[in-house]
Fold this protein.
Amino acid sequence: MIYICDNLLDYSDELYLKHLFSLPAWRREKALQYKKLEDRKRSVLAFVLLQHALREKYGITEVPEFVYNEFGKPSLSNLPIHFSLSHCKTAVACAVSDYNIGIDVENIVPYNPNVARKVCTATELKMLERSENKDVDFIKLWTIKEAISKYEGKGLSLSFCSIDTGKYVLRLDINDNKQFVMTICYGVKPNVLQEDIKINKITF
Amino acid sequence: MLDKVISIISEYQGVSKEEIHVDSHLVNDLGFTSFDVAELVGQFEEAFDIDIPDRKIRDLKTIADIVRYIEIKKSEKEQ
C-alpha cells in the first residue's frame, strides 16, 4: 500500500501538535530532535501515514519501535512487514508491503550538473545532456536511484554511479502540478501485489 | 573552517548559525535529505576547492565529520 500526503501547506500547527502528542515517546523524541518546525511536521506526518497504513492493512494499532540495520534502514522488530518512508518539502510518502519495498519523493529543482556528475553514469549524463527537460529528468533519475538504495537498505553507502537501474521494477509518478517526483522500487523479479501499486492520497 | 562550514549549512537549510553545533547531525537534527546532502557536498567542493567522492558522502554525518574531512583533504593538497 502506498500513501502520500502532498498538501503539507495545509497541515496546521494545531493538527501537528495533536499528532505529535499522540505518538509513542520514542518517535516524538525523534521528531523534536529537528531544529525546524517543517522538518518536525514531516517526521510526524510520515509516522502518522505509517500508523494509518499498518492499521488499515494489518490491523496493527500500536507501531513497534523501529530497529535499524547497519546502514540505517528501519524495520519493524519481529514483524514480517516491510515499509519505507520518504519526504520532500511538499510531500510525505509511505509504502507498506508484505515484500521489501523502497520509496522516494523529491521536489523538482533546477538541474545541478555538479550533483549529476557525482551520482550518474556516463550514459546517464549523456542522456541528461540531450534532455529538453533536465530538471525533471534528473530528479526522476535521482528518485529511481534513491528508491533502489532504500529497497536495498544501504542508503547513501550505495554508490549511486554503480546502480544498475535497468534490472529493477519501478513505478514512477510526477505530481499533477509537477512539484515533485515519486518513485517506488519493488526489487528484481518481485512479487508485486495490486494493492502495492495503488496510490492512496491522504488530505487534511 | 568551522565557521565557514556552518555558514554554508545555515544558508542552505535556513537554520540559524546559533542552532548548528559541531555535533549536529545533518539528517537527524538539521533535516537534510539525501538529495540535500549531495547538493551540499557540491558547495563544499566549490568553497574549499576539494573533491569529495560519492562513496565518501556516507561518512559525512555531522558537522565534525565534515570539518575533519575537509581538513584532511586540504592538508593532502598542500603536501
Remarks:
- Helices of chain B lie at 2-13, 34-48, 63-78.
- The CA atoms of residues 60 and 66 of chain B lie 5 Å apart.
- The mean pLDDT of chain B is 91.
- The interface with chain A takes residues 13-15, 19, 28-31, 33-35, 37-39, 41-42, 45-46, 54-55, 57-58 of chain B (CB under 8 Å).
